[in-house]
Structures are given as C-alpha cells and as structure tokens.
Amino acid sequence: MSALQALKTKLADINALEAAGAVLDWDQQTYMPPKAVEARARHASVLGRLAHEMWTSDELQTLLGRAEAEAEPGSVDAALVRIVRRETSLKTKIPAQLVERKAQLAALGHEVWVEARAASDFGKFAPTLAEMVDIVREEANCLGVGDSIYDPLLDQYEEGSTAADVRTMFETIKQPTVDLVRAIRETNTQPDTGRLIGEWDQGRASEFTLKVVQAIGFDLQRGRQDVAPHPFCTNFSVNDVRLTTRFKPYIGSAIFGSLHEAGHGMYEQGSPEEWDGTPLAGGVSLGVHESQSRLWENIVGRSRAFWEHFLPSLQGSFPELDHYNLDSFYAAVNKVEPSLIRVEADELTYNLHILLRFEIELGMLEGTLAIKDLPEAWNEKMREYLGIVPPNDAQGCLQDVHWSGGSIGYFPTYSMGNLLSYQIWARLQQDIPNTDDLMAKGHFAPIFEWLRERIYAQGSRYTPKDLVVRVTGKPMGADDWMSGMKSKYSALYRLA
Ligand code: ZN
Questions:
Q1: Taking residues 460-466, what's their average pLDDT?
Q2: Distance, CA 299 to ligand 1 centroid (Å)?
Q3: Would you say 101 and 135 are in contact if contact means Cβ atoms under 8 Å apart?
Q4: In a domain, 368, yes or no
Q5: Domain with 40 in it
Q6: Quick one: pLDDT band at residue 96, thresholds 50, 70, 90?
Q7: How many angstroms separate the CA atoms of 210 and 205, rounded?
Q8: Total count of domains within the chain
Q9: Does one domain contain both 348 and 209?
Q10: Where does the pLDDT of residue 164 fall: very low under 50, low under 70, confident under 90, or very high at 90 and above?
Q11: How far away, in angstroms, is 203 Cα from ligand 1 center?
Q12: Could you tell me if 267 and 138 lie in one domain?
C-alpha cells in the first residue's frame, strides 16, 4: 500500500472518532436529558483524547512524511498532506499540560461566568479571565508569535489572516458604518416591527422554515433540522448534516436562524463524496463558512425579492402577519437599531460589535488594557461606535460566553464572513445578473449551483485566501460590503 493510501486509512479512523464525538455533542445540545451531563462529559473526553493521540502519534508523523514525498505537486493529494501537516503541527505545538490546564479553567470559568453574569458583576469574573488570558498568551507563544501576539490565535480559525488584516478591514468600514448608522437614526424612521413579536405555533413555524431551507438547496435526505437553545450546524459526514433552529417571540429568529444554519449546512453537503472522512471535506475556515451563512441569511433572506416569493406563504401559515405588505415587511426585517447585544444586532451594526471585541482582545493580550479596566473600555467603545451604553455588565462585557472558554482570536471571522458574503455576491451577479427575478420566482437553483461549484465543491482544498481570490478575483476587501450597505439602507431609509 502506498503511504498516501495508508495515511488516508488512518485519517478515516480519526474521522470516525471525531464524527462519533460530534454526534454526542449534537445530542447534548438538542435532546439529552439534563442529568446526563457528567457521563456525557466523560464519554466525549475519552473520544477526544483518542483522536488527539492519533493525530499526534509517531505513526501518523512517519506516514505523513512519506506521503508528502509521494504527492504530486498541485494535486488534491498535495492539498490533503498540506492540511494534515498544518493540523498535526497545530496539535503538537501546544503541550498536553497546557491543553489540560486550559480545559480545566474553561470548565470552571464557565460556571464563574454564569454566576458573574447573573449578578452582573464583572469583578467576580475578572480573576478567572486574567488567568485565561495568561494561558492564551502562552498558547500563542507555543504556536509562534508573528508581528502580533494575535496572529497565531487568529490563524487557528482563519489560516493566513493576521491582526494587520483585521485592522485594515475595520479601518475601511468603521467610520462609514458609524456615519451610516447615525444618518439612519436621524431620519427617525421606525419600521413597524411590533407584529413580528408574538406567540407562534411551533409546528407551523417549523414547517415554514423547512420549506425555506429546502427551497434554497438544503438536502433533507442528507440532513435534518432540530431545535436547540443556541442554534448551530454540525455534520457527521457529507451525507449527514444537522441544522438547529429556535423558536422565540420574534418570528425572524427561527426564519433567519434556519437560513443562516442552512448556509453552513449546504457548504458541508457540497463537498465531493470521495473526500468524505478526510480533512479535505467541509468548509475551509470560519470566515469563509460564515460568508455562506450570511449570504443566505442576509443577502438572499433579507431581500425584497425573497419575500415577494415567501411572504404569501408565511402569511398563509400565520394570518396574524396579514397586516404587513411586502414593503412594510421588508422594512421590518431590515430595521437598523444600535443594540447592546451582539447576537441580536442587525446586519449593519453587527460589525461594530466585533470591532469592539477585537480591540479589547488585542488590548488584553498585548497588555495595554488591564483586565480590571475592561468594563470601562467596553462601555466607552459602545458609546463611540453605537451611541449607547450598557446599563450593567451583564448587558455589556459579560454577554458573550467565548472568553470564559478561552476562545480568543475568533470574533473577527464573523466580520470577515459579512464582508466576504457581499464580495462573493458581487462576483456572482456578474454571471447571474437577474438574481432578483429568480428569487422572486422562488428559483434559487442557479444561485445555489454557482456557489456549489465554486465554493462548496472545493471543500478545504485551497487555503482561505487562495479560495477567495479564485472565486472573486481579488483578496478579501470591504468595498462590496460597504457599498451594499449604503445602497440597501439609503433606499430603505430614504437617505440623501
Ligand atoms: Zn454562523
């Protein structure tokens, strides 16, 4: 057997363990009874440890070295060994002891964060966060610090991206976004969103979201949708992709949440079947993944054309919404309003929440922001970017779970996804100029096909930066997003 073949067999074994772990995790977040937590943690940790041992084993290293010599430059096999080299190197650079310390602190940190948020008291969380930042700094040093200590952390989620890239991205959009938000506020236009809040029959809401995700291209023969308090998408193979959604008083939560997760899900379903079980299958990075969820959620799902097709059917399920016509509904689901909570932010103000977190993370890691000063820094930035100040820490710097688990360096990928979604869409429209006509007829296949061929079917073959250039002809930039925002909201809010 060639080394490449032997490597693929080994990778399939590792993948089976990881897929089993993913099933356990999906179950935990959807159906598992609460008292199963402890046993489940034990089971998941054994699977995780076995997979980690296999990833870092001498056997895999030896096979990889031989496979690298065998792979034809530029081939799919060469891409595979490149990805495996990166994975094993990320996994071996951080000592097991540090991984262990971080996992323990994360478990404890989560409890501390829950209590601190309930009491709205950042002081309770500060010592844990300080310890976590130390661990993350150590982690960055193990991975190899570039120009910024932020670089190796971001690179784990978005290969090849640096703090400098993120700074450039935000420098381009920061002031124009703040100005646009202010201009919108000054119009005093208030889209009527009141009737989007209600008690919705869950069965009918679920039926509607399934109809929508299927219409845009999610394959229910190779996936399903369940309910979870914090929606996510996971997969166990290219033929088994799980979406989750949630039903809240705001009807948009279920609809746009389902569209968002289906965007992730279609990307996963679109990998070539022969890559299944190897690291070639699946989305290439968090930023590119998010570009697909945001494209379907915002550019398609929040377009007027989309609702030209779907509003009658939504009103058929929920006559309470008959009060809306197409224009008032379109305005309502696109309402811009600075808000305290990131996950509830509209499409335009969302990036400002990410900018704030990026600057704070950078300050904590570089040591220019003392942990004790974090609430003040947070509130100051909220005032500057969004014009509002949280009344307490729970609605301010304690709102996100991420830092308690040591996930630092990951927030910017959300903004990258927003920017990329518009950049990809701009390129798509050069080939398919009549997207509005198609969407208004409920005909999404040409859009899906264009994305499938150029993005989904490429799996992780190319690096994120290479893929973006291949698909759009240029590196990630902010221009398409910014002009998309200006034209959409100028029309909606009748700005001069
Ligand atoms: Zn997402």
A1: 98
A2: 14
A3: yes
A4: yes
A5: 3-144
A6: confident
A7: 9
A8: 2
A9: yes
A10: very high
A11: 24
A12: no
